[in-house]
Write a structure and sequence with these properties.
Blueprint lengths: L1 E7 L2 E8 L4 E4 L6 E2 L10 E6 L2 E6 L6 E5 L2 E5 L14 E6 L2 E10 L3 E2 L2 E2 L5 E6 L12 H12 L5 H15 L5 E6 L12 E4 L6 E2 L5 H9 L1 E5 L4 E5 L4 E5 L1 E9 L1 E9 L8 H44 L3 H4 L1 H9 L10 E4 L6 H11 L7 E5 L5 H9 E2 L11 E2 L1 H4 L4 E5 L6 H13 L1 E2 L8 E2 L3 E6 L3 H6 L5 H7 L2 E4 L4
Parallel strand pairs: 3-4, 22-29, 22-30, 23-26, 26-29
Antiparallel strand pairs: 1-2, 1-10, 3-5, 5-6, 7-8, 7-9, 9-10, 11-12, 13-17, 14-15, 14-21, 15-16, 17-20, 18-19, 20-21, 24-25, 27-28
Length: about 500
Amino acid sequence: MIRIRLEERGHPARFTEILTLPATLGRAPSNDIVIDRPFVSARHGELYSAGDQVFYADLGSTNGSRLERRGETTAIRAGTSHANPIRDGDRIILGEGDQTLVMLIESTTGIRTDDRAVPPTVVAARRPVGGPHEGAHPVSLAGKLAHLAKRAALVRQVDDLDRLMATTCLEVFPSATHVMLAESPDPPCEPWEPGRVLARGAARFEAGPPPSPTAREAMQRHEALLVTDTNLPSTDAPPLRVAAVRAMIAVPVLHGRVGVIQVESRDQPHAFTEADLDVLMLLGGQYSAVRLRLQRESSLQARCVALAEANRHLEARGHPELFAGPDLQRFLDTLDPVLDTDVTVLVTGETGTGKELVARYLHGQGPRSRETFWAINCAALSDNLLQDELFGHVKGAFTGAEGPRKGIFELAHGGTLFLDEVGELGESVQAKLLRVIETGEVWRLGSERPIRVSTRIIAATNRDLRQEVERGRFRADLYYRLAVFLAPVPPL
């Protein structure tokens, strides 16, 4: 594994990890490391291995590559690698002049650095998740497993389930010093969030590091891994201190999104056996089933609350004829062609005719009905606040942005987003909304890379958007993207 820090003037640093070589880098999306900068060529360079060493080759880039080591800079000729292998702390400079990006090689595993060999991570055993696995399960564990199943059946909160799982692992594995529970980002291209770590003897979870590369490999391959006699770094916080994971079991769990249970020993290099690997797979299966149940219960509860709120809204309006009259029934019949689709719908009509209720009806009858329905009033926020609400931001995007924040488009991934009063959007928001509809990609404010989303859009307005387009107040291309299907609500 190679860990790289990417530095560019005027942009926040970002990190990337390479688990397999060779790995290409450049502006084209097909590269292993994508650097979307105009001074970086489509295929700029490549990191590759020879024996137990790693080299960098320039692939004929326009602006060239240079190697900086201990203050000395050497040009790397196109088509050839530098004579020396890459070492920890080396800087590979892409571009020239004021437009440069620096790749700082921060750590390497299993390659030669400063003439000292760092041993690679040794996977002692692996099991396919979901496949048959047999092991020497001690009979005394049967009671603990049954006890876990009984207690898990009574759990109603995810936090309680996580603590039950972690404490059970510490009981079952006497050699374990720490247990980490982590969940993969959604979408997968997002940075990993810190894991939740429970140390033996601790009263509560602490924030830990993201899962180790080995644990992430387990999730990507859907394999349970047993790692022994290793020296993986692990950071606890607070306070910050560095410890070494000497042995580890990593088991992926499937509960809607992929997560991982990582049981660690930080003092014994051979703390776990293959039988322990099999036992943790059994525990992970129970944990996954209960976690999925809790997620479904939460989704069902949210839908019940939404339906109750909609019912309360209808009763408060006092217009039963809106929902029982022949005009509405004829209108609902016109929606049949788009009920089982993800087609974008523009609901039009006078204020107070129930346009949001129509949107909820389309969502509830559509293929995304099991997912969340999100609604936002575009007229209630300024353009700047609306962009932040819709698209989110990264840390440092503006004053007060102390951490990353997901926008509603990301939160509504898989579900439906209702844009009420869409005719009130400013020009800048219209342009960004059009790009999301056309590409299916969201750019957080201040971000250097897009995030793929799958969100059905239903918009509503009480304005005549055709007239707004003719007057130059609303983009024609956005109008036609929104009005793929027009749904004019009859007046009261």
